[in-house]
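User
Class, as today's exercise, I want you to study this protein, comparing sequence with structure tokens, and judge whether sequence predicts the tokens.
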Amino acid sequence: MKVVIIYGNHTGGSTEHCVSIVKNVLASFGECSFTEFFLPTDLPVICRGCFRCFEDGEETCPDARLVQPIVSAMREADGLIFASPVYACEVSGAMKTLFDHLCYIWMTHRPMEEMFSKVGMVISVTAGAGTVTSIRTMEKNFRYWGVKRTIGFGAAVQAMSWNEVASAKKTKLEAKLTRKASRFYRMMELRYTLRPMIFQRIMFKLLGKMIQGYEPGSRLSRDQNYWRDKGWFNGKSPFMRGARE
């Protein structure tokens, strides 16, 4: 199994420790390879809002040399794990920057067909509150990218570092992470046979009608051409992909 892990910061804190538990569980089931990106180190620039990815293609983004290696790794992965601490009751600014750069792969624009046969896991750990909103943000992006299923894990550890977390709480968190990681591995095994979420199918259909109705030569004609070339206006669907050869 190929798993891409993206961290919302790189401080070696509780969130990273929880990811390490998940990695150990996944590796215990069989051969797993992990490709990891640490933000903001691997993507230190914010989205400029220049619209080049929408109008001229993602390869024309001023930061394509940083963004596209992440996209390529995601394209090849069987599963995605995004992990972010909570900053101001949300994901870290570095994680939000990545989501901004990847807005062009939302179903509203040019979703990657490969995403529709992937599963994801999102992890958010904080000392206090805010994991609900940070998890919701990561899950929302996965959903609009087309990711089939997402498992969420959030924890308030009442400590500034993993070493300061109470022993009893650590035991409970490790048990919960083990269960969720086991479920995530099973979902990766079944990723091609899992039924798509109804929400995604409805949104795909509605967005297809919207994109098909764009005026020729509009600023978003690249999106329209992309959908047309995929055959998505004529009955084809990324949900129909079969198992990888």
